[in-house]
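Hi C.,

You asked whether I'd gotten around to modeling the 405-residue construct. I have! Everything is below, sequence then structure, no commentary in between.
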Amino acid sequence: MRNARRKRRIEAIEVDRNVHRSRNRRASAIRPGPHVNHLNAEAGHLLGLIAFLLPALLLALERRRYVVAAVVLAAIPFSGQLHLAIGAIPLALGYAWARTPRSDWWKAGAGTAAAVAAGLLVDWWAVSGSIGTGRSFSQVDRYSAEISDFVTRAVGSGAEELVFVGWLTPLLALAGLVTIRRQRAGLAVLLGLAVLLPSLLALGANLPGYETLWRAVPGLDATRVPERFLPIACLALAALAAFAIEQVRAPGLAASVIAAAAVVVLAVDLRVPVFGAVAADTPSPAYEAMRGEGRLLELPVFRPDVHYGSVYVGYARQSPRERPQGYSTIAPRRAVGVARELRPLSCGRGTIPRDLGIRFVAIQRGLYAQSGFFAAGCADRAEAMLRADGWRRLARDGPITTYAR
């Protein structure tokens, strides 16, 4: 059994070795680690940027550029946003129904079929067989929004549950819906549903029947943050609000002033204090002290789907080398076993297996404190374990200390 565990650890490192064989070592080495799937780590949290593909998709359909629409729609799953793609596909079909000639529906359907094929390919290549499959619904429960979150101008229990859409904006959107319900009935139905359904789904575990839906819809059971559908609702809200503002008739310059004032008012209405100023990141002398080739183990050890591991991905830019950790919600399953075997080292229990080829160790005391997963004194015991095993200290930079064998 010990040999089997050792073999799994070595295999995990070898995955990274094969991936990082590239002329451009720095470009390849910023990828998370030996067990981390690169698609998720590079694009999984770029939802805000990738959501810009949604208006591009509708614009292409509006102008009857069906090939462009198909490419844009397929780009959503290829970017790693399978969750958003599940909502974007019916959005594309609905917009084609509401705004394109019946004779062109087959073109929109063909493009949608191509996007579905892209999603299935990404699911097979990146998600199947990873820790993203077979999730517990308790993870969804953790990230589910509550009804009060829609009217709370604050992050609340976490950024993943942030679903605030303003106080005035929904009222303005409702006025826009009333305005177009007769002249553009199909579009009104589409935009209304595009606001309502993603908003309801953002409630996740707090929505009766969501668990059944989560288990039944292909691909949805690999997701854990229900509010990832919300960019669709935001786009529909913006469109409806624009229709309402369009009804304000004014001559010449007054129309421009009204439009500019509306933009300012909506910006104030949607403001949420999410971001704040922080000190610019600077290279760490502790990481700079690691010279030459060799694998790096960073302590404490986290499961690959725990976001604290993304800190190590950040330091990989400064110290591009193979490491048995990183962050990904769709890492290979064996990565969990590797993390479980190495986790006791975080509190100084055991010794670092020599067969892993680890030459450097970095102790990140800030993560010990911030995560709250480890008992007080664990970092001290980890350093004592290293010294007792013959490791020498290279440098200390505030909460970061590096060692070499």
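If it helps when you're writing up: Residues 284-404 form one domain.

Thanks,
B.
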